[in-house]
Amino acid sequence: MASNASLLAVIMACTLLGGHTCHGARHLADTTPAAAPPAAAAVPGLPALPTMPTLPPMPAVPTVPAVTVPAMPPVPTVIVPQMPAIPSMPKLTLPPMPSIPTVNVPGLPAVPTMPTLPPMPAVPTVPAVTVPAMPMVPTVTVPQVTLPLPPMPAVPLVPKVTMPPMPTIVVPKVTVTMAPMPAIVVPKVTLPPMPFVPNVNVPMPFLAPPPSV
């Protein structure tokens, strides 16, 4: 590589000096033997791949012991005594209701005509609103845990209880005599005539249009 650089420097110097010196330099360059190319550098080899370590075997999954649930004890039978008969209530006789007198009510006057209302203004249209999509809710996986349950405690037996008989209830018979109803007299009332209501044209106020959105 150094010989090539020196040769290039000599050629450039000959070019600057003149034609006769360039001819001699060219003759010198043609007769000078070329330098041998440098030896190629040795490429190192790739390192050997390391061996992977041997993984230990997976431990065995423990078996869950079977849980035996004890049988439920029998439910004791309870004897409920019969209810006594309900005594009958005495029959009461009510006096007749007095007649209601008729009352003459005058007729109602004619309803005045209502004024004509102006038409309602047009309702402005509401612009459509685009609602963004709801974000995705991540899925949470809850691991299932199985715990051994303790045995159920024994339920004590309920002793059998005999209820005493219900006593007989005697309701005394009571006779109630109602006093006669007094006569109701409604006085005749004359109502005054209704006053005349004139037709009044009430102008409706002008409704302003709603503000623009």
From TrEMBL:
InterPro entries recorded: PELPK1_2 (IPR044659)
Highest taxon above the source species: Eukaryota
Signal peptide: 1-24
Keywords: Signal
Identification of the protein by name: Uncharacterized protein
Origin species: Aegilops tauschii subsp. strangulata (Goatgrass)
